[in-house]
Amino acid sequence: MKHPYQVGITGGIGSGKSLVCRILHRGFDAPVYDADSRAKYLMQHKRELIEQIIQHFGKEAYTPDGTLNNAYLAERVFHDVQAVKQLNALVHPQVALDYQAWLMTHKQAPYVVREAALMIESGAHASLDLLVLVTAPVEIRIRRVLLRDPHRNRAQVEAIIAKQMSEEEKRRYAHYVIENDGSRPLLPAVVALHELINKKIRTKNT
Ligand code: ADP
């Protein structure tokens, strides 16, 4: 079966990966699969996954009205590496299935974009044609997140960053890097990425 060319966009929190994806979507009509929000959706709506989460984390993982109890789950996994692994081991295969189904509905697109913070950790990068890392120095990322997410404080953002794979390690997997440190405008960098993707597609098809 013919797939569209698959581009992954990853980067730590505040790197600007969502903004890059928004530009590719709005500017070039690229379909974007947002793995992090789909994961949240599936945890709330996919029966099989809900049952597995309850089995592993207890029925407190959902409130009596059936809403995901984010506070409880966050508390369970925040200081427990094993619990995070367990939760990811339940969620990632469901996201992989969901992505495959989504991909089927975009067979006509020249390329699709998969956005995920945990792209490499989930193994999703392995099936992509091109992995793009969006990156920026930690201090800039913290400042951006504090402006974007008023409900988070600096210590919380630092704790999230400390748990994510380092940018240095991610660079080893990336085929292409966008340095989004604010010293250069982002728009031309995304246009250049779009052009590179099209060049790769042409090369692949000849
Ligand atoms: P991520 O998805 O990687 O967590 P976002 O794309 O949401 O990051 O970017 C974090 C915040 O920083 C957003 O409010 C975004 O608009 C802003 N931002 C990202 N890159 C830039 C940039 N180059 N210039 C100005 N603001 C930026």
UniProtKB/TrEMBL annotation:
GO BP field: coenzyme A biosynthetic process
GO cellular component terms listed in the entry, alphabetical order: cytoplasm
InterPro entries with a match to the protein in the record: Depp_CoAkinase, P-loop_NTPase
Catalytic reaction annotation: 3'-dephospho-CoA + ATP = ADP + CoA + H(+)
Pathway info: Cofactor biosynthesis; coenzyme A biosynthesis; CoA from (R)-pantothenate: step 5/5
Recorded GO MF terms: ATP binding; dephospho-CoA kinase activity
Keywords in alphabetical order: ATP-binding, Coenzyme A biosynthesis, Cytoplasm, Kinase, Nucleotide-binding, Transferase
EC identifiers of the protein: 2.7.1.24
Entry keyword annotation includes Cytoplasm: yes
Enzyme class: transferase
SUPFAM superfamilies with a match to the protein in the record: P-loop containing nucleoside triphosphate hydrolases
Compartmental location: Cytoplasm
Record's keyword annotation contains Ribosomal protein: no
Entries under CDD domains matching the protein: DPCK
Annotated binding of ATP, by residue: G14, S15, G16, K17, S18, L19
Family label: Belongs to the CoaE family.
Protein's job: Catalyzes the phosphorylation of the 3'-hydroxyl group of dephosphocoenzyme A to form coenzyme A.
PANTHER family: BIFUNCTIONAL COENZYME A SYNTHASE-RELATED, DEPHOSPHO-COA KINASE-RELATED
Name this protein carries in UniProt: Dephospho-CoA kinase
Organism, scientific name: Thermonema lapsum
